[in-house]
Protein backbone atom coordinates (compact mmCIF):
# COMPACT_ATOMS: atom_id res chain seq x y z
CA UNK A 1 0.00 0.00 0.00
CA UNK A 2 1.29 3.45 -0.92
CA UNK A 3 1.51 6.05 1.82
CA UNK A 4 0.86 9.79 1.53
CA UNK A 5 3.93 11.47 0.07
CA UNK A 6 5.57 14.52 1.68
CA UNK A 7 7.36 17.10 -0.46
CA UNK A 8 10.28 16.16 -2.69
CA UNK A 9 12.63 18.25 -0.54
CA UNK A 10 11.52 16.38 2.59
CA UNK A 11 12.10 13.01 0.91
CA UNK A 12 15.61 14.05 -0.13
CA UNK A 13 16.31 15.30 3.38
CA UNK A 14 15.23 11.94 4.86
CA UNK A 15 17.42 10.15 2.30
CA UNK A 16 20.44 12.25 3.30
CA UNK A 17 19.97 11.25 6.95
CA UNK A 18 19.70 7.57 5.95
CA UNK A 19 22.79 7.85 3.73
CA UNK A 20 24.89 9.14 6.63
CA UNK A 21 23.46 6.61 9.06
CA UNK A 22 24.07 3.55 6.85
CA UNK A 23 27.10 4.81 4.91
CA UNK A 24 25.48 4.18 1.54
CA UNK A 25 25.16 6.14 -1.70
CA UNK A 26 22.47 8.81 -2.09
CA UNK A 27 20.78 6.88 -4.92
CA UNK A 28 20.49 3.79 -2.74
CA UNK A 29 19.11 5.85 0.14
CA UNK A 30 16.50 7.41 -2.16
CA UNK A 31 15.36 3.97 -3.27
CA UNK A 32 15.09 2.76 0.34
CA UNK A 33 13.02 5.81 1.26
CA UNK A 34 10.83 5.09 -1.79
CA UNK A 35 10.20 1.55 -0.54
CA UNK A 36 9.02 2.95 2.80
CA UNK A 37 6.26 4.82 0.97
CA UNK A 38 5.24 1.79 -1.10
CA UNK A 39 7.05 2.69 -4.34
CA UNK A 40 9.46 0.46 -6.24
CA UNK A 41 12.11 3.12 -6.80
CA UNK A 42 12.93 6.82 -6.62
CA UNK A 43 12.08 7.16 -10.31
CA UNK A 44 8.53 5.98 -9.62
CA UNK A 45 8.13 8.57 -6.87
CA UNK A 46 9.46 11.32 -9.16
CA UNK A 47 6.93 10.35 -11.82
CA UNK A 48 4.14 10.52 -9.25
CA UNK A 49 5.29 13.94 -7.96
CA UNK A 50 5.49 15.31 -11.52
CA UNK A 51 1.95 14.07 -12.29
CA UNK A 52 0.58 15.71 -9.16
CA UNK A 53 2.34 18.99 -9.88
CA UNK A 54 0.82 19.08 -13.36
CA UNK A 55 -2.69 18.63 -11.94
CA UNK A 56 -2.39 21.22 -9.18
CA UNK A 57 -4.10 24.56 -9.61
CA UNK A 58 -2.23 27.73 -8.72
CA UNK A 59 -4.09 28.63 -5.53
CA UNK A 60 -6.19 25.72 -4.29
CA UNK A 61 -8.09 26.29 -1.07
CA UNK A 62 -6.97 24.27 1.90
CA UNK A 63 -8.87 20.95 2.05
CA UNK A 64 -11.24 19.94 4.84
CA UNK A 65 -8.58 17.93 6.61
CA UNK A 66 -6.79 21.24 7.27
CA UNK A 67 -9.73 22.82 9.08
CA UNK A 68 -8.39 25.00 11.86
CA UNK A 69 -8.52 23.51 15.31
CA UNK A 70 -10.18 25.41 18.11
CA UNK A 71 -7.59 27.56 19.84
CA UNK A 72 -6.43 25.87 23.01
CA UNK A 73 -6.24 27.95 26.16
CA UNK A 74 -3.04 26.67 27.74
CA UNK A 75 -2.09 27.66 31.25
CA UNK A 76 1.18 29.51 31.79
CA UNK A 77 3.17 26.39 32.72
CA UNK A 78 1.92 24.47 29.67
CA UNK A 79 2.73 27.35 27.34
CA UNK A 80 6.18 27.86 28.86
CA UNK A 81 6.92 24.16 28.33
CA UNK A 82 5.70 24.46 24.74
CA UNK A 83 8.06 27.39 24.08
CA UNK A 84 11.02 25.64 25.71
CA UNK A 85 10.47 22.66 23.43
CA UNK A 86 13.12 23.11 20.74
CA UNK A 87 14.59 20.67 18.28
CA UNK A 88 18.34 20.75 17.62
CA UNK A 89 18.58 17.48 15.71
CA UNK A 90 18.59 19.05 12.26
CA UNK A 91 21.45 17.75 10.17
CA UNK A 92 24.38 20.01 9.34
CA UNK A 93 23.22 19.95 5.72
CA UNK A 94 19.80 21.30 6.68
CA UNK A 95 21.29 23.97 8.95
CA UNK A 96 23.54 25.05 6.09
CA UNK A 97 20.53 25.10 3.73
CA UNK A 98 18.61 27.38 6.12
CA UNK A 99 21.55 29.81 6.33
CA UNK A 100 21.88 29.85 2.53
CA UNK A 101 18.17 30.50 2.17
CA UNK A 102 18.31 33.41 4.64
CA UNK A 103 21.14 34.94 2.61
CA UNK A 104 19.06 34.50 -0.56
CA UNK A 105 16.12 36.39 0.97
CA UNK A 106 18.39 39.23 2.09
CA UNK A 107 20.07 39.32 -1.32
CA UNK A 108 16.62 39.99 -2.80
CA UNK A 109 15.99 42.75 -0.26
CA UNK A 110 13.01 40.98 1.28
CA UNK A 111 11.95 41.69 4.86
CA UNK A 112 11.12 38.41 6.62
CA UNK A 113 10.89 36.73 9.99
CA UNK A 114 11.30 33.11 11.05
CA UNK A 115 9.37 30.85 13.36
CA UNK A 116 10.04 27.28 14.49
CA UNK A 117 6.98 25.12 15.13
CA UNK A 118 7.19 22.66 18.01
CA UNK A 119 5.66 19.19 18.12
CA UNK A 120 3.14 20.27 20.77
CA UNK A 121 2.40 23.48 18.89
CA UNK A 122 1.61 21.58 15.70
CA UNK A 123 -0.70 19.21 17.57
CA UNK A 124 -2.56 21.97 19.41
CA UNK A 125 -2.59 24.49 16.51
CA UNK A 126 -0.73 27.19 18.42
CA UNK A 127 2.39 29.25 17.74
CA UNK A 128 4.09 31.94 19.80
CA UNK A 129 4.30 35.24 17.91
CA UNK A 130 7.87 35.99 18.99
CA UNK A 131 9.25 39.51 19.24
CA UNK A 132 11.04 38.98 15.93
CA UNK A 133 7.73 38.15 14.24
CA UNK A 134 5.90 41.01 15.96
CA UNK A 135 8.59 43.48 14.90
CA UNK A 136 8.33 42.25 11.32
CA UNK A 137 4.54 42.66 11.38
CA UNK A 138 4.90 46.23 12.65
CA UNK A 139 7.59 47.17 10.12
CA UNK A 140 5.22 46.06 7.37
CA UNK A 141 2.15 47.70 9.01
CA UNK A 142 0.56 44.26 8.95
CA UNK A 143 -0.57 43.73 12.54
CA UNK A 144 0.00 45.39 15.92
CA UNK A 145 -0.45 43.01 18.84
CA UNK A 146 -0.01 45.78 21.40
CA UNK A 147 -3.31 47.36 20.35
CA UNK A 148 -5.20 44.05 20.15
CA UNK A 149 -7.50 43.07 23.02
CA UNK A 150 -7.53 39.59 24.51
CA UNK A 151 -10.08 36.90 23.66
CA UNK A 152 -11.46 34.99 20.68
CA UNK A 153 -13.84 37.81 19.78
CA UNK A 154 -10.85 40.04 18.97
CA UNK A 155 -9.00 37.49 16.82
CA UNK A 156 -7.85 38.81 13.42
CA UNK A 157 -7.87 36.54 10.39
CA UNK A 158 -6.10 37.29 7.12
CA UNK A 159 -5.35 35.45 3.89
CA UNK A 160 -2.13 33.44 3.87
CA UNK A 161 -0.36 31.17 1.38
CA UNK A 162 1.87 28.14 1.85
CA UNK A 163 4.48 28.21 -0.90
CA UNK A 164 6.47 25.38 -2.48
CA UNK A 165 7.93 25.06 -5.97
CA UNK A 166 5.02 22.83 -7.00
CA UNK A 167 2.13 24.59 -5.28
CA UNK A 168 0.75 27.83 -3.84
CA UNK A 169 -1.87 26.75 -1.31
CA UNK A 170 -4.36 29.24 0.07
CA UNK A 171 -4.55 29.30 3.87
CA UNK A 172 -5.71 31.57 6.71
CA UNK A 173 -3.56 33.27 9.35
CA UNK A 174 -5.08 33.74 12.81
CA UNK A 175 -3.58 36.48 15.01
CA UNK A 176 -4.79 36.73 18.58
CA UNK A 177 -4.13 37.17 22.30
CA UNK A 178 -5.78 34.49 24.46
CA UNK A 179 -7.58 35.01 27.74
CA UNK A 180 -4.62 33.95 29.84
CA UNK A 181 -3.07 36.20 32.45
CA UNK A 182 -0.52 37.79 30.13
CA UNK A 183 -2.36 37.41 26.86
CA UNK A 184 0.89 36.54 25.10
CA UNK A 185 0.65 37.19 21.33
CA UNK A 186 -0.02 34.03 19.36
CA UNK A 187 -0.70 33.01 15.78
CA UNK A 188 -1.63 30.06 13.64
CA UNK A 189 -1.61 29.18 9.95
CA UNK A 190 -4.24 26.73 8.73
CA UNK A 191 -2.63 23.65 7.14
CA UNK A 192 0.78 24.16 8.79
CA UNK A 193 1.11 20.51 10.00
CA UNK A 194 1.03 19.37 6.36
CA UNK A 195 3.60 22.01 5.39
CA UNK A 196 6.26 21.68 8.09
CA UNK A 197 7.53 19.45 10.86
CA UNK A 198 8.67 20.28 14.38
CA UNK A 199 11.99 22.10 14.33
CA UNK A 200 11.68 23.39 10.76
CA UNK A 201 12.61 27.01 10.09
CA UNK A 202 9.66 28.68 8.35
CA UNK A 203 9.94 32.16 6.81
CA UNK A 204 7.09 34.68 6.80
CA UNK A 205 6.99 37.23 3.99
CA UNK A 206 4.29 39.90 3.74
CA UNK A 207 2.90 41.36 0.53
CA UNK A 208 -0.36 43.25 0.01
CA UNK A 209 -1.44 42.58 3.61
CA UNK A 210 -1.14 38.81 3.12
CA UNK A 211 1.40 36.37 4.53
CA UNK A 212 3.42 33.95 2.43
CA UNK A 213 5.17 31.03 4.15
CA UNK A 214 8.25 29.22 2.82
CA UNK A 215 9.81 26.28 4.65
CA UNK A 216 13.53 27.09 4.62
CA UNK A 217 14.39 23.62 5.93
CA UNK A 218 13.00 21.83 2.88
CA UNK A 219 13.40 24.41 0.11
CA UNK A 220 16.51 25.47 -1.79
CA UNK A 221 15.71 29.03 -2.86
CA UNK A 222 18.65 29.27 -5.26
CA UNK A 223 17.34 26.19 -7.06
CA UNK A 224 13.79 27.58 -6.97
CA UNK A 225 14.90 30.78 -8.69
CA UNK A 226 16.68 28.76 -11.38
CA UNK A 227 13.69 26.52 -12.17
CA UNK A 228 11.74 27.06 -15.35
CA UNK A 229 8.46 26.64 -13.47
CA UNK A 230 8.20 27.37 -9.77
CA UNK A 231 5.52 29.10 -7.70
CA UNK A 232 8.25 30.40 -5.39
CA UNK A 233 10.07 31.91 -8.37
CA UNK A 234 6.82 33.48 -9.63
CA UNK A 235 6.16 35.00 -6.21
CA UNK A 236 9.63 36.54 -5.96
CA UNK A 237 9.31 37.91 -9.50
CA UNK A 238 6.03 39.67 -8.69
CA UNK A 239 7.43 40.84 -5.35
CA UNK A 240 10.48 42.41 -7.03
CA UNK A 241 8.38 44.08 -9.72
CA UNK A 242 6.16 45.69 -7.11
CA UNK A 243 9.00 46.87 -4.87
CA UNK A 244 11.41 48.04 -7.60
CA UNK A 245 9.09 50.39 -9.49
CA UNK A 246 10.68 53.59 -8.13
CA UNK A 247 14.19 52.31 -8.78
CA UNK A 248 13.28 51.39 -12.35
CA UNK A 249 11.74 54.82 -12.89
CA UNK A 250 14.94 56.55 -11.67
CA UNK A 251 17.13 54.21 -13.71
CA UNK A 252 15.26 55.07 -16.92
CA UNK A 253 15.69 58.79 -16.25
CA UNK A 254 19.44 58.34 -15.71
CA UNK A 255 19.70 56.31 -18.91
CA UNK A 256 18.05 59.15 -20.80
CA UNK A 257 20.48 61.67 -19.30
CA UNK A 258 23.42 59.42 -20.24
CA UNK A 259 22.68 59.87 -23.95
CA UNK A 260 24.35 63.28 -23.95
CA UNK A 261 26.83 65.40 -22.09
CA UNK A 262 25.42 68.16 -19.90
CA UNK A 263 27.08 71.21 -18.31
CA UNK A 264 27.67 71.56 -14.58
CA UNK A 265 25.37 74.08 -12.91
CA UNK A 266 27.88 74.96 -10.22
CA UNK A 267 31.55 74.48 -9.44
CA UNK A 268 33.27 72.41 -6.76
CA UNK A 269 32.85 69.02 -5.15
CA UNK A 270 29.06 69.20 -5.07
CA UNK A 271 28.70 70.07 -8.76
CA UNK A 272 27.64 66.63 -10.02
CA UNK A 273 25.17 66.03 -7.18
CA UNK A 274 23.61 69.46 -7.52
CA UNK A 275 23.42 69.19 -11.32
CA UNK A 276 21.83 65.72 -11.23
CA UNK A 277 19.29 66.96 -8.71
CA UNK A 278 18.30 69.78 -11.05
CA UNK A 279 18.22 67.57 -14.17
CA UNK A 280 15.92 65.10 -12.40
CA UNK A 281 13.59 67.89 -11.18
CA UNK A 282 14.27 67.05 -7.55
CA UNK A 283 13.17 69.93 -5.37
CA UNK A 284 15.81 71.45 -3.13
CA UNK A 285 15.47 70.40 0.51
CA UNK A 286 17.35 70.65 3.79
CA UNK A 287 19.13 67.33 3.22
CA UNK A 288 22.74 67.51 2.15
CA UNK A 289 22.04 64.82 -0.44
CA UNK A 290 19.51 64.72 -3.27
CA UNK A 291 16.60 62.36 -2.68
CA UNK A 292 14.36 60.75 -5.31
CA UNK A 293 11.21 59.27 -3.77
CA UNK A 294 13.20 57.72 -0.93
CA UNK A 295 16.31 56.79 -2.92
CA UNK A 296 19.50 58.71 -2.18
CA UNK A 297 21.50 59.84 -5.18
CA UNK A 298 25.28 60.05 -4.83
CA UNK A 299 27.87 60.86 -7.46
CA UNK A 300 30.78 58.40 -7.50
CA UNK A 301 31.53 55.26 -5.73
CA UNK A 302 34.27 54.52 -4.88
CA UNK A 303 40.15 42.39 4.69
CA UNK A 304 39.75 44.03 7.80
CA UNK A 305 37.44 41.24 9.08
CA UNK A 306 34.95 43.39 11.00
CA UNK A 307 33.31 46.46 9.60
CA UNK A 308 31.39 49.18 11.43
CA UNK A 309 27.70 49.54 10.53
CA UNK A 310 26.86 52.48 12.78
CA UNK A 311 27.62 54.14 16.12
CA UNK A 312 24.91 54.55 18.74
CA UNK A 313 25.10 55.43 22.41
CA UNK A 314 22.73 53.79 24.88
CA UNK A 315 19.39 55.27 25.88
CA UNK A 316 20.59 56.89 29.07
CA UNK A 317 17.10 57.57 30.43
CA UNK A 318 16.45 53.79 30.45
CA UNK A 319 19.95 52.79 31.59
CA UNK A 320 21.39 52.50 35.12
CA UNK A 321 24.58 54.16 33.83
CA UNK A 322 23.67 57.66 32.65
CA UNK A 323 26.71 58.44 30.48
CA UNK A 324 29.79 56.85 28.96
CA UNK A 325 32.05 58.22 31.70
CA UNK A 326 30.04 56.28 34.28
CA UNK A 327 30.54 53.00 32.37
CA UNK A 328 34.25 53.80 32.11
CA UNK A 329 34.57 54.50 35.84
CA UNK A 330 32.94 51.16 36.76
CA UNK A 331 34.50 48.79 34.24
CA UNK A 332 37.58 50.51 32.76
CA UNK A 333 41.28 49.79 33.27
CA UNK A 334 44.55 51.68 33.22
CA UNK A 335 46.68 51.70 30.07
CA UNK A 336 49.78 53.83 30.44
CA UNK A 337 48.72 57.33 31.40
CA UNK A 338 45.14 56.80 30.22
CA UNK A 339 42.11 55.06 31.69
CA UNK A 340 40.30 53.03 29.00
CA UNK A 341 37.45 50.71 28.20
CA UNK A 342 38.27 49.28 24.77
CA UNK A 343 36.40 45.99 24.46
CA UNK A 344 33.91 43.97 22.40
CA UNK A 345 30.45 43.03 23.71
CA UNK A 346 28.49 40.02 22.41
CA UNK A 347 25.56 37.85 23.46
CA UNK A 348 27.69 34.71 23.25
CA UNK A 349 30.04 35.17 26.22
CA UNK A 350 31.26 37.58 28.87
CA UNK A 351 34.40 39.53 27.95
CA UNK A 352 37.39 39.93 30.34
CA UNK A 353 35.62 42.90 31.95
CA UNK A 354 32.58 40.69 32.67
CA UNK A 355 30.39 42.53 30.15
CA UNK A 356 27.95 40.82 27.77
CA UNK A 357 24.68 41.40 25.92
CA UNK A 358 21.25 39.90 26.55
CA UNK A 359 18.40 40.46 24.10
CA UNK A 360 15.13 40.79 25.99
CA UNK A 361 12.55 39.63 23.44
CA UNK A 362 9.58 40.68 25.56
CA UNK A 363 10.79 44.30 25.73
CA UNK A 364 12.60 44.26 22.36
CA UNK A 365 15.68 45.59 24.13
CA UNK A 366 19.39 44.98 23.79
CA UNK A 367 20.76 45.03 27.32
CA UNK A 368 24.37 45.21 28.46
CA UNK A 369 25.04 43.34 31.71
CA UNK A 370 27.98 42.93 34.06
CA UNK A 371 28.48 39.37 35.29
CA UNK A 372 24.88 38.64 34.23
CA UNK A 373 23.72 40.33 37.44
CA UNK A 374 24.08 44.11 37.09
CA UNK A 375 22.35 45.97 34.26
CA UNK A 376 24.68 48.52 32.65
CA UNK A 377 22.95 50.05 29.62
CA UNK A 378 19.94 49.61 27.32
CA UNK A 379 19.23 50.09 23.59
CA UNK A 380 15.69 49.65 22.28
CA UNK A 381 15.19 47.65 19.11
CA UNK A 382 13.35 50.60 17.55
CA UNK A 383 16.33 52.90 18.13
CA UNK A 384 18.85 50.47 16.62
CA UNK A 385 16.69 49.71 13.56
CA UNK A 386 16.15 53.44 12.98
CA UNK A 387 19.88 54.10 13.26
CA UNK A 388 20.64 51.31 10.79
CA UNK A 389 18.15 52.73 8.28
CA UNK A 390 19.50 56.26 8.70
CA UNK A 391 23.07 55.15 8.12
CA UNK A 392 22.35 52.79 5.23
CA UNK A 393 19.65 54.11 2.93
CA UNK A 394 18.67 52.81 -0.48
CA UNK A 395 21.14 54.55 -2.76
CA UNK A 396 22.02 55.05 -6.43
CA UNK A 397 25.79 55.55 -6.78
CA UNK A 398 26.35 57.30 -10.10
CA UNK A 399 29.69 57.22 -11.89
CA UNK A 400 30.22 60.13 -14.27
CA UNK A 401 33.08 61.23 -16.52
CA UNK A 402 34.04 64.89 -16.30
CA UNK A 403 35.66 66.96 -19.04
CA UNK A 404 36.20 70.63 -19.75
CA UNK A 405 34.78 72.08 -22.97
CA UNK A 406 35.57 75.75 -23.68
CA UNK A 407 36.22 76.31 -20.00
CA UNK A 408 32.93 74.75 -18.88
CA UNK A 409 32.75 71.42 -17.01
CA UNK A 410 30.56 68.80 -18.65
CA UNK A 411 29.39 65.46 -17.27
CA UNK A 412 28.78 62.16 -19.04
CA UNK A 413 26.95 59.54 -16.98
CA UNK A 414 28.55 56.09 -17.26
CA UNK A 415 27.08 53.65 -14.74
CA UNK A 416 24.99 53.21 -11.61
CA UNK A 417 25.40 50.87 -8.65
CA UNK A 418 22.13 50.30 -6.77
CA UNK A 419 22.51 49.44 -3.08
CA UNK A 420 19.25 48.64 -1.31
CA UNK A 421 18.45 49.45 2.30
CA UNK A 422 19.31 46.73 4.82
CA UNK A 423 16.71 44.14 5.82
CA UNK A 424 16.08 45.72 9.21
CA UNK A 425 13.90 42.87 10.51
CA UNK A 426 17.11 40.81 10.77
CA UNK A 427 19.08 43.27 12.93
CA UNK A 428 17.97 42.05 16.37
CA UNK A 429 18.14 38.31 15.46
CA UNK A 430 21.74 38.86 14.31
CA UNK A 431 22.58 40.64 17.56
CA UNK A 432 20.89 37.83 19.49
CA UNK A 433 22.93 35.18 17.66
CA UNK A 434 26.21 37.05 18.14
CA UNK A 435 26.77 37.77 14.43
CA UNK A 436 26.63 41.50 15.22
CA UNK A 437 28.73 42.76 18.14
CA UNK A 438 29.47 46.13 19.71
CA UNK A 439 32.77 47.84 20.65
CA UNK A 440 33.20 50.25 23.53
CA UNK A 441 35.88 52.85 22.80
CA UNK A 442 35.88 55.06 25.90
CA UNK A 443 38.99 56.80 27.21
CA UNK A 444 39.92 59.30 29.91
CA UNK A 445 43.06 61.13 28.87
CA UNK A 446 45.89 61.20 31.38
CA UNK A 447 46.88 64.62 30.06
CA UNK A 448 43.66 66.61 30.52
CA UNK A 449 41.34 64.15 32.33
CA UNK A 450 38.73 64.51 29.57
CA UNK A 451 36.54 61.53 28.59
CA UNK A 452 36.05 60.76 24.90
CA UNK A 453 33.73 58.15 23.34
CA UNK A 454 34.36 56.99 19.77
CA UNK A 455 31.52 54.51 19.87
CA UNK A 456 29.74 52.41 20.80
CA UNK A 457 30.36 50.88 17.39
CA UNK A 458 28.04 48.13 16.15
CA UNK A 459 30.05 45.81 13.92
CA UNK A 460 29.64 42.80 11.67
CA UNK A 461 32.11 40.49 9.98
CA UNK A 462 32.31 41.32 6.28
CA UNK A 463 31.55 37.74 5.32
CA UNK A 464 28.19 38.11 7.13
CA UNK A 465 27.11 41.34 5.43
CA UNK A 466 24.87 39.33 3.11
CA UNK A 467 22.78 38.32 6.14
CA UNK A 468 21.70 41.96 6.44
CA UNK A 469 22.36 43.81 3.17
CA UNK A 470 20.89 42.96 -0.25
CA UNK A 471 23.37 42.32 -3.05
CA UNK A 472 24.31 45.52 -4.96
CA UNK A 473 23.27 45.64 -8.62
CA UNK A 474 25.29 47.55 -11.24
CA UNK A 475 23.99 48.98 -14.52
CA UNK A 476 25.74 50.49 -17.52
CA UNK A 477 23.91 53.62 -18.59
CA UNK A 478 25.17 53.87 -22.15
TrEMBL record:
Gene3D superfamilies the record matches: MvaI/BcnI restriction endonuclease, catalytic domain (3.40.210.20), MvaI/BcnI restriction endonuclease, recognition domain (3.30.70.3570)
Q: Which CDD domains match?
A: PDDEXK_nuclease
- Cross-referenced InterPro entries, in alphabetical order? MvaI_BcnI (IPR029127), MvaI_BcnI_cat (IPR043004), MvaI_BcnI_rec (IPR043005)
> Which residues belong to the signal peptide in this entry?
none
Question: Locate the MvaI/BcnI restriction endonuclease domain: which residues?
Answer: 251-469
Top-level taxon in the UniProt lineage: Bacteria
Report the protein name in the record: MvaI/BcnI restriction endonuclease domain-containing protein
Species the sequence originates in: Shewanella eurypsychrophilus
Q: What is the lineage of its organism?
A: Bacteria, Pseudomonadati, Pseudomonadota, Gammaproteobacteria, Alteromonadales
Amino acid sequence: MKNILPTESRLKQDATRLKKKLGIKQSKALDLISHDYGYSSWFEIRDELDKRAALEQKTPDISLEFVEAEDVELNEEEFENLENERYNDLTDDVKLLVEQNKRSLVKLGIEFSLFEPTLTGLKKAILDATQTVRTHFELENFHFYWEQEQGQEHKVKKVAYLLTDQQQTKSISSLYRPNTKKGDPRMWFRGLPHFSEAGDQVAIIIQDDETYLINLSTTNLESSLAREKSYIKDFFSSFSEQHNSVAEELLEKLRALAQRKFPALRKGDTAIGYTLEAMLDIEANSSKLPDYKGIELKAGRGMNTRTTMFAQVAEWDKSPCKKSAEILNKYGYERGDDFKLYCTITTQRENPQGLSFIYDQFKDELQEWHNKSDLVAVWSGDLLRKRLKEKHTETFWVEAKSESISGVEYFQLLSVTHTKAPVSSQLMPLLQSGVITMDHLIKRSGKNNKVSEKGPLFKINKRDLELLFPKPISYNLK
